């Protein structure tokens, strides 16, 4: 449904310029600490994993190291899997789900798979509980050559040496009520387009790659996650956020064409998870557990093939 412009920045029908970007930046408030909530946890992983800085995000006088966690005994003959979280920094369970997976489950896969984990791709977005970066760019539409998003460009540089070697990539996300109340309206305002609303799905769902669908992989993840939290049903139109369901809890996007994170590795098996933290039927702990269950299910699928 298209609605008239109502976002408090910009003029209906006109894309933003520098003045509107400055107004938007002035509204952003730091609400939590990347150093305290993410980096401090990563510090405790050095004894068990290879931990390295793969880049830095710098905005004005703010600087954020970008961290990657890798299997300590990398073996070229093992399948290689990438796990990413916090591409949209506000999507909390993606970040903490990735960290919990490393802390609690990754050791189970030693000698079975090479793991590369980037738990918080967008630290400025994490601190400001924001979908975009400081430049009002969505990192998860910016994974392409010449990316304008520092976060996306840095992650692509990280994975480049192994591109073509990845068997799977699981990218951890959330769909929240603020998608409808804030992030979709501001996107329409930024681009000078009408706001097209969609209902927010109540539950977990997955996004498969329309150019490379892997229904058995997605089904395995759904079956594992539904032991932890509920799966989103179809909406009144028979889909989820404007896309038709191709299976229970699964829709498809053209990942590479849209510049999505899950399209960067060339892996055969890719999936974007989406949990719903605002559901009356799920707690924050369940959302994190669902992310961990999704990663573990994806890994079990890969290592048994």
UniProtKB/TrEMBL annotation:
SUPFAM superfamilies in the record: Zn-dependent exopeptidases (SSF53187)
Peptidase M14 domain mapped to chain residues: 30-305
Entries under Gene3D superfamilies matching the protein: Zn peptidases
Family: Belongs to the peptidase M14 family.
Name used for this protein in its record: Peptidase M14 domain-containing protein
